[in-house]
Design brief:
about 425 residues, mainly alpha, 16 helices, about 70% helix, globular, disordered N terminus, disordered C terminus
């Protein structure tokens, strides 16, 4: 019987990766996240049905993949994480809200769809053709996101978006910080494509396209003025470069370290510069306004984090339950409504308690360990480069998530990273029923 990665289910998964970041509804108060989550849920459940109908032995294949020696450690971490979320939902202050989700629909039902996607990715294997297809799907989706963001920056967007972001580059993701974070998390895949083009001696046109995509992504991340995205981009690029260049002489490593240090310095300098002034003359009023927004953001984040930590002692082990943050967090009267702590660690601590936060940290630790094991077992430079891109993408996700709310497109990229690292190398075949 054919491999699980082939056929209709595989094509549906690739289409989900391409289409999901592009969906939005401009005629609602929350134009991006609710429609994306709804489509994600139905699409993943649909892909599962297609998989079961298309391959009679797929359930046995998924079970075999999950409990294979290679997948056991990371799969155990995911199972522990899942149990923590389920327990937090069972003992939630509002079980219905924690299951179905609030305005952004990030309840347990969405997490169930995420875990199903993770299982399908694992059972698909990690052969070069499948990796290339997934990477292409991710990169294809970033192009319209970036182009729309640049059109907004140039003032060419016919739609009027209401946002309190420093930058107007909301694109199809609703906020400029989400745009920057998404592109930062996908940038290591663009670097992988550029590396492959140069390493494999492809045509100048192919290498030029890959370089243009990298330049496009970097431009959008910088112009988004999202400092968390800048840090994520630098961290993800650093991990990719270090892992790919690990066999290289120490002199090259020193040059790499110097380049990354320069990147950090540039990001630090840009954090106090209003890039929107590129479209108009710089005035003291514009700079003062920009500085005020930056200061207001810092003060707001610090207030949110401080008040969030104050909530922890009442429910230290299992938290208040997923999606209950807006019901337990009481912002000052003169501040904007807050429905997320803007920090993935605090989010887990409040929603799932110390048990959930520990499970999340375990997930990352096992992921890093499995990347290290995979590098030691890699068959060639390309397999190592793929692992470097996955590690860089996950690193960029984690760094930006320390300052930003989570969104479904970021979850999609992160769990693709997890699933592909946990996947066995080579083609996985479905046993005959």
């Amino acid at each position: 019987m054919r491999a699980l990665r082939s056929g209709t289910a595989r094509r549906a998964l690739l289409w989900l990766v391409v289409v999901l970041p592009l969906l939005f509804n401009p005629y609602t108060n929350t134009p991006s996240e609710p429609i994306k989550v709804s489509v994600f849920r139905w699409a993943v459940f649909g892909i599962l049905v297609l998989t079961l109908l298309e391959r009679r032995g797929s359930l046995r294949l998924i079970g075999k993949s999950l409990f294979s020696p290679r997948a056991l450690t990371i799969e155990l971490a995911v199972a522990v994480y899942g149990v923590a979320l389920v327990l937090s939902t069972v003992f939630s202050l509002d079980r219905s809200l924690s299951f179905w989700g609030g305005s952004d629909k990030h309840g347990l039902l969405t997490w169930l769809a995420v875990w199903i996607l993770f299982g399908i990715i694992i059972s698909s294997g990690r052969d070069p053709a499948w990796i290339r297809a997934l990477v292409d799907a991710v990169l294809v989706s970033t192009v319209p996101v970036c182009l729309y963001a640049l059109a907004q920056f140039a003032g060419l967007d016919p739609l009027e978006w209401v946002t309190d972001s420093v930058s107007e580059m909301t694109s199809t993701l609703g906020r400029s910080n989400t745009v920057g974070a998404y592109i930062a998390a996908t940038a290591p895949f663009a670097l992988l494509r550029l590396r492959d083009s140069c390493k494999e001696g492809r045509s100048a046109l192919s290498s030029g396209r890959a370089l243009a995509l990298v330049a496009l992504q970097v431009s959008v991340v910088l112009l988004s003025q999202a400092r968390a995205a800048w840090l994520g981009l630098i961290a993800g690029t650093a991990v990719f470069a270090v892992v790919v260049g690990r066999p290289r002489p120490s002199r090259r490593r020193r040059w790499l370290a110097a380049g990354l240090s320069a990147g950090v310095l540039v990001a630090a300098l840009l954090s106090v510069v209003d890039l929107s002034s590129l479209r108009s003359s710089v005035s003291s009023d514009a700079l003062a306004s920009f500085g005020a927004k930056r200061l207001q953001t810092l003060e707001s984040r610090w207030m949110i984090w401080r008040e969030t930590l104050a909530l922890v002692p009442e429910n230290p082990l299992l938290g208040y339950g997923p999606e209950t943050f807006s019901t337990v967090f009481h912002a000052p009267e003169d501040s904007m409504p807050v429905n997320d702590p803007h920090n993935v660690l605090l989010e887990h601590l409040v929603a799932t308690g110390a048990i959930g936060l520990g499970a999340f940290c375990l997930l990352f630790a096992v992921f890093a360990r499995q990347v290290k094991q995979g590098l030691a077992e890699s068959r060639d430079d390309h397999d190592a480069a793929v692992l470097a891109a996955l590690a860089g993408s996950a690193t960029a996700y984690l760094v930006q998530a320390l300052f930003n709310p989570d969104t479904i497109v970021l979850h999609l990229i992160f769990w693709l990273d997890l699933g592909l690292v946990a996947s066995p190398t080579g083609t996985v075949s479905v046993p005959d029923a």
